[in-house]
Fold each of these.
Amino acid sequence: MTKKPKPSKSKKEKYAVYVNGNLVGFHKNGEALVAKLKEKRRTNQLNYETNIYMSKRTHEIYINTDRGRVRKPYIVVEEGRSRLGQEIHSKLKKGELTWEHLVKMGVIEYLDADEEENAYVAMNPEDITDEHTHLELDPSIIFGVTTSALPYPEHNSAPRITMACSMAKQSLGVYSTNFAKRFDTRGYVMFYPQQPLVSTDFYKALDLKNRAAGQNLIVAIATHEGYNMGDGLVINRSAVDRGMGRVVMFKTYQTEERLYPGGQKDKIELPTPDVVGYRGDEPYVNLDADGVIFPESDVESRLVLVGKTSPPRFIEEVSVFGVVEEKKRESSLSLKSGEKGKIDSVMVTESPNGNRLVKVKVRSMKIPEVGDKMASRHGQKGVIGSLLSQENMPFTKDGIVPDLIMNPHAIPSRMTAGHLLDALGGKAATIGGMIMDGTAFTGNNETDYMKILKENGFDEYGEEVLYDGITGKRIRAKIFISPIYYQKLHHLVSNKMHVRSRGPVQLLTLQPTEGRAREGGLRFGEMERDCLIGYGASMVVRERLLEESDKTVQLVCENCGMLGFHNHIKGKTLCPACGSDMNSPVEISYAFKLLVDEIMSLYIFPRLVLKDKA
């Protein structure tokens, strides 16, 4: 028997080469090709924006040069040595070399998500081995832009870093230095923003101290009278009176003289009593003769900001005398319900369509109150539970009174050791008179802070003896008290608070409208209903879901169970199905009546069987 020849491996060993996703050919030695291309890129013969990725498993090489790739710089490592040697480093410090020089020399190269799969990156120079291909410029740049501005992220659990990132974007500071001249839809400006005592390299590089969005508060970690249970915060009312956390809110309202298809047009003017929908004299009290409000006027909800009249919706019929008086409609711009403030500025201009446009900026003061949200830079968020006068708050032997008291139970389960380290650094910064470095992996550590505290006669762990403000007695436990950076977030209770007793209903379901802006009801859902059923409070269920919602009285035919109606011409009730006049009024939810109508639209005849109440 002769042996069959083995199939040639040459085809299998060939690597498919793709450029920007398009197959351009095959190469017999993929590793040599990739090495040659990378060397050409490092010697500036190939554009530095080119990235090469090789998959040994699928025998494919991907060369990417297209736009839209996120690329990150790394230091090139060859044979266990970084290309950024001592000589290059010293030239860089002297300013003889720039970043562009390093890229062209092949010291720095940018990798995209694909090529990173083939890279083995060392975090620090001392970690480099012969297997490593690249070195991080700095260990902290493994984090994103927002996280890099937060101190000690490596000491916190991942979900808390995510929360801290999203809350840093919600913090209130000075969003723009020309805020007085801008007409933004909504903007907040903090009165006394401060630079944090514990900063990071990234924070300094971006010069964020000029765009600060928070304040350094004296924070004690303790329980206090139950007002900071859970994530509640006890705030020093006297500190609030001195301007802590105080913010001004700007909101812009605008209206335009619209042009209608028939050639008719809105008019910005002071509405007169003969206008349809005239609101009385009170709402127009602050308007000038041209229908626009005066700056610095005090305004409350429902007061008119810009008077405006519109043409009638439908063409008027000619009267007996052949004269038609055009009835104008009232369509003024007024302040939304539940809002108040002062008129900051008014701008009269033209819209892109050439119509007259008026913008009114309303200014209102937002002083911290119970329910407002605050957070540290470590995802430790909470709402104000109580505002206490300074004389009733605990104090240290030096007379230091905390601005904020947070609950100790918030620390261990959230694993935010960075919060404590930030606080300890804040205390060391105030004593040492310097800004501390909280950059991830490379910043100051607890040993540095403990040394400063100990040298200055403080407890090395930041704890102090406090005295009760009400009794004057010494509190028997040592309490951690320190300055730490807190942000005020734009979740303000004054912008969210909403109640309703009665109000508008939806046209289709006749149920209350939804949302604060539409003066809507508060949703009483299935789970709330289940609670009441569990308590056996059946009359409350009826009141919430029927009496206070969409109760209606409908006629039901006693003969066939169809919904009937009242014939006003004949003066009697009729059933549309069987013509019977035996129709009884029944109290039902209008949503149920709507369901019955929709079932009938599917050619199904639902019968409502009536029985006498037992």
Amino acid sequence: MELWQPRDTYLARHEPVIRVGFIHCEHPRVPPWLEPCAVFLFILANYLLSAPRGVVLDDDGYFILAAWYGGVAHPPGYPLYTLVANLFTHIPAGSVAFRVHMCSAVFGALACAVIWDLVRRVKGSRMAAWTGALGYGFSGTFWLQSTMAEVYSLNAFFFFVLLWLCAIPGKRASRGVWIAALSGLSLTNHWPLMLLSAPALALAAWPHRHALTRRPLPALTWFCIGLLPYAWMVYRSRVSEIAFFGPIESLSDFWFYVSREAYTSIDQSAAAGWMDKLRYATFSLTDAARQFGWVAAPFALVGLAAQWKVWPRSLCWALVAGFAGSTLVLAMLLGFDWDLMHRNVFAPYPLVAHGIFAVWVALGVTVMADWLARSFPAPARTRIVLPALALMAIGSVWLSNAPANYRPAAGWASEFATTLLESLKPNAVLIVSGDYAVGPVAYLNRIERLRPDVEVFNVAGQLFTNRVVSPRSTDPLAARAAFENFIAQEQRPIYYHLNLPHQRPVTLHGLFYEVARDLPAGDNKVILTPRIEQFFSRMFAQDEPKDLSELMHHRQLGAVYCRTLAALTEALENTKISTSLERNCAGYYGLLERATFLLAREHPDPTQALALLRLAGARQGEAVSMQSIAMLDNLFGLAYDQLGASDKASEHVRRSLARWPDSSNPAHAMMRAGQSGQ
């Protein structure tokens, strides 16, 4: 007996009895599990064909390392995902990176299979079920997150399984125990997103609340059992080679991990205001439509309106609450700056909303087919109109997202990390910083065993056990002193990527810095080897990446290269280098680096620097963070100060502080220096 048959529509009264294309017949011999399994296998095959074979950016390398070593990922630790992903690392199929990507693909495909069965039971149409399941599977961000080492496909799987258990009839007492156990497990994966989804699940279960809570003690017991992966996380933090913030030795350590206390500055920026929240809320709502393309998205609006006529109010309110929880409510809770970097970081958070959007698309397709079918003869209504609309919706979603998400040959992260590691001297020390660098470099070095003679450190003391500083330290002076002491005692060649937590002379190699023990204090050197020159030549010869993570990394590395070219141009006066500087460093970050060099050299040239900064201001849209936008005003302030225009200098310094009031903003020191000068 189906639950909640649609009201008196033609499609509800005339289920197809033969198979035409994707139309599924009502045949008593067809096992009920067959088509969900077909959905799972079809989506999984698509994900495995499109998944990167090697490491990529974002947190991919972090999660692969945590899975391989059975360690602890970044807060809140994600113990369930890393535990299950560790099992996948033992599958003899491709690289370790691909095996962990396979773990995410499996849960993404399972989530789509659950959506198929959910829509089939509440809509009564197999075609609608296929539309919802494939639409979600092919949606842009969900597809992306299901083909890399990330926790979001597992979170979506938990939500839709729990929604299924809450909304679909069954033995309610046993369902209550299952709901409790899976709820506990889901909290060991991504508890913030599951708590945002909890009101939706409560609304779906509300009509059956008495039956679901009939066995409270077993339910509570199984809920606590579901939380056990956190105990595994505590144990592994003490014995594994990978523990993001080190061993968990007390309740305060455990709370530090689980509460995500370390990410307070990311979730809540001092510069962000209500306008940033409003922009993110608007973006998250319209982004759901972009995920499905502008052909399929209008069907969701039809489904949203029509659901109140065909489904129980409890389910309708549950879907609305689930959609709002990871879009509007999340926007109100978060307080980050509205910039490219944070949009990329938080883009996967609304994936539950995208799944609900897919359910509305499925309903909208059947409602529109029912309306259009009135113009067709009776036999053609279910054989032509509904399949045509469903194929149009599914096909448009796939066509919108396939070009960006078919990434089996994605090699940007591996190429960068390989170039970096292979450019170092034998038995070197490499100290890396930034998510984009640490993950790929550590993966190739620790797991693929590329340059095993090189020992990799994290500048913040995170991830590895060979810590120079405590990963929870917030004192920059103490960190600098620790690295100064480390360098003084270390005999091996020492290299840095990006950050320089010391004041010693360095040699800039275009992609990294080398501690120059042979140079006198205050003196630096620049070298550009053919290998690194070839890497950057290939990078600038190609169009900028469309993937946001790769785009930001591309610009970050390009800035270091431009810094190198500016210094070489000054030292060598080489025409080829000057031409390369003009050609490759005309973007926002390249112009900032060139201006910085002109203002910092022994004989500054503030006039030329201002010309470059004005060009950078016209390309400010390329900036990926408020920090880099504030840096433009800092440089304007420094240039005007060198010209003696103190009023204009103060104006730009104040503007920088208004945009990025963080304590690490150099504008604070510039403001204090200006006040003391007065």
Amino acid sequence: MPQTDALFDLPESHASLPPVADGWPEQPVAKILLEAPVLHLDRLFDYLIPKELDEAAQPGVRVKVRFGHQELFGWLIRRSDTIETTARLNTIRKVVSVMPVLEPKVLELAEAVADRYGSITADVLRAVIPRRVAGVEREIAQQVDDDRIPAPQPIQPPNEVASEDTSALTFRWDLLEGAAQLFTAGHDGHYALTLPSAHGSWDAMGILADAAQRLAATDQNTLIVVPDHKHLARLQQHMENHIGSRSFAVLSGQQGDTARYRRFLQVLTGQHRIVIGTRSAIWAPLQHIDAIIVWEPTSDHLIEPRTPYFHVHTVARLRAAQHGARLVLASTSRAVAVQHLVAIGQLTQIGASRDTRNALAPRVVATSDSFHAERDPLAQIARIPHLAYRSAREALDGKHGPPGPVLIQVARAGFIPGLFCAQCGESARCRHCTGPLGYTDRLAVQRHEATCRWCGVKERHFSCPHCGSRQLRAGARGVHRTAEELGRAFPMTPVLSSSADHVLVTVPDQPAIVIATPGAEPVAPGGYAAALLLDGDSQLQREGLNVPEQVLGHWMRAATLVRPARDGGVVVVTADYDDAVAALVQMNPIAWATRELAQRQQLGLPPAVRVAELLGPLDEIRKTIRHTILPYHAEQSPWIGPVPYDEQTHRALLFFPHRVAEQVITALKTTRAQLSARGESTAVRLRIDPTDVL
């Protein structure tokens, strides 16, 4: 019987190339991804490449094209001989970039991130490619043309200094069980690392610099991402001490456009084996990566604040799998999300033994402990209980070890950032914008002049709208008020402060009071003699599923900066005794994360399940929910809400199992794209796995 397959090979209808005098180049069709933040335009469009742009129009360059009645920028993804449409094609107007700056693997990663977060590739690429500086681009392109691109400098392995001291107090890689696998070429394991100390030889940034040097010495490429510029400054200093300033590249949003683009192009052209940086560095265009290290992976600083709101540790996992690289998510604490990855086998736990942890740990005491509470009945109401004051005094005087600085961690910046009605206890709010009122300095307290922290309007005649009282009381004391109080309590002792508006990176090993907000704690090279963790109850009483995890992380970060107990190091936490306080006293955040994860699994809460959040006008959210076909059925709608989020916005939440995550996110993305194409819904924002919804 004759073959009949040909009967069904219907001819495809494509547009033909229009005639031009000079003809068309080979592969004259450019597949362009438009830089348009519109959901239904998240696909490739066909454009023609005129002969005069043949050489410049290479995959990875930025171009300018005509789309409708406007000119848009876009990325040339690939060239082809095939036209995928019957419409009349426009030609590329201009090739903007002199050299291809969108590396194929980075594009592939951006597409994967867009799929995971229900977004579009163009939105992801906005965070990938730094702002273009034409002069720098021409300079690097000329070096490429002249074959003058320098090869990465050879790096020598670190000197192994023989020492008779084999105690756990001096850092060695063999003290971290399983750490040898981190340096094995070709190994692609993924690890969770919790360091038991963070000063002296255990300084985390020094350890990361040493790891990068060891990898580069065997011709392996390393990418290190840290959460903020305080960590980056310390890491950069350690890198310069280890391998010199020219042997690595720094990528950071705080760099100027020129410096940042130059470093980006140097990495793209293969001039460095090591890249360090903040959030944007995860996209560094290394052609091959052997190891990716992320410090404090669940820090809020490592979440993209704009759509698609990706988490750096998730991008790092995707990129490590793409390159077959080792991945290390490291911290001094343990996030529940990281513990979940350990529990399901996606991360292997490495870390110090119990003996090493105990040798490095300071003595931790809680003022709520019954032994101390009986001896100080006012400890529960005093902001700085007698135990905390005495511990600080003894540390400054060197009673139990060498005298040294004392770290005091406070919850808030400012002077008195929060005020409440003295009679009914309601939060004091601005009459103009409902923002929180606070006192900016001592003079403001004397004048009874509160200031709105949102709009800046001064309130001199406060009247509580609930009870009519005109009296205010302090709800919290910030860095500056605490500094003033402690300056009186410890006369003749230097008082230093570190907060978001003025961050100290390091402090000397001399007696001083160092007051810092969470995340802004400077490092003392020899370790703090003591640390006082104030306002514990007010921090733990904040609303949010992740509040205990965040507070414990802040506490662990401060506690690991304190000397070991054998050297007199002590940490005092002023909080009621609960699970987080117990984990700090035991210096065992992994056990706490394990218990917390088990509870969330029983309750069906993240990270045991995935979360999608819709934010926008009520009618548009309802329309999005109505048109989204979920890949599973339930007797009742699995959506929570929509409910009011603020005066103009509503919010709806969807919890869904990991096994159907890909289908759910695809369904949400498809629905939003379809509604966008019909012009029916454009104001709904989608966030996947937000950390601040509960």
